[in-house]
Specification:
The chain is α/β, with parallel strands linked by helices. It contains nine helices and eleven strands.
């Protein structure tokens, strides 16, 4: 695999995206979301789908970063044929120094890969735009340090990281739950429970696509419509994935502590 030991031009950056999507429309939409938030050209992003592609560490060869998206139909609390290969892939990326970023399900997968605890918690499910706050560690973090102490982020989950891995640092939380963002110590490996790849427009698309599932979660049409009405621009998060690539691939910035 490629380890960014020295600075690299942004237009030469190559990213591998791991997806867990059963339907072609959302698979494609998720790819577009990562392209937009990372500010990549289509040829700079390659995708593998755990539902049909065989995962192995060799997939990382030639890439400068690994990103792991969401999963409307799957829970990282359960075991599937792809679960162990996915966790092995994440550990291989970390061992090789490959910058790695997990969003929502990907965040949970990174936590599980290194011994954290992920639980189903439907009572604390989060949808739409919600406020998130940085921890003291988040305020001095190489990636989140330029964020305001409190910011809006787009949500869509009912599983959550209840206990971080021993080697992780909590970077953000909110009034609903801890561990909204974390990173691994001494490694360019990050996870956000919120969807860092979704702006307000893409969040609305995603919610509408999974309308039946979310209505079931929320209990009524009125509750679902209230979530749609609450959507707001999440300007700070909109540049997070791009900043991640700039800091840890283009600038090859080390992670401290």
């Amino acid at each position: 695999m490629t380890s960014p030991a020295r600075p690299k031009p942004f237009d030469a950056v190559r990213v591998l995206l791991v997806q867990a999507r059963d339907t072609a429309d959302i698979e494609h939409q998720e790819q577009l979301c990562f392209l937009e938030r990372c500010r990549l050209r289509p040829e700079q992003l390659a995708a593998v789908n755990v539902t049909r592609d065989r995962l192995h560490p060799g997939l990382l060869d030639g890439f400068d970063a690994l990103m792991i998206g969401g999963a409307g139909e799957y829970s990282i609390t359960e075991d599937y044929p792809f679960t162990e290969p996915l966790l092995d892939l994440i550990r291989a990326a970390c061992d090789g120094g490959l910058p790695t970023f997990g969003s929502c399900w990907g965040h949970q997968a990174i936590a599980r890969a290194f011994g954290g605890t992920v639980i189903k918690d439907r009572e604390r499910a989060e949808f739409g735009s919600r406020w998130v706050e940085l921890t003291p560690a988040g305020r001095t973090d190489p990636l989140f340090g330029d964020f305001p102490p409190r910011f809006l982020a787009n949500m869509g989950h009912h599983d959550r990281v209840a206990v971080l891995p021993d080697m992780a640092v909590e970077l953000a939380f909110n009034d609903s739950q801890p561990n909204q963002a974390f990173r691994l110590k001494h490694r360019p490996v990050y996870g956000t429970q919120f969807h860092s790849e979704l702006d307000a427009h893409r969040e609305r698309e995603r919610l509408l696509r999974y309308r039946d599932l979310y209505r079931q979660e929320l209990g009524s049409d009125a509750a679902f419509e209230a979530i749609l009405a609450s959507l707001a621009e999440t300007t700070d998060v909109d540049h997070l994935l791009y900043d991640f690539l700039v800091k840890f691939v283009v600038q090859a910035r080390p992670v401290i502590d």
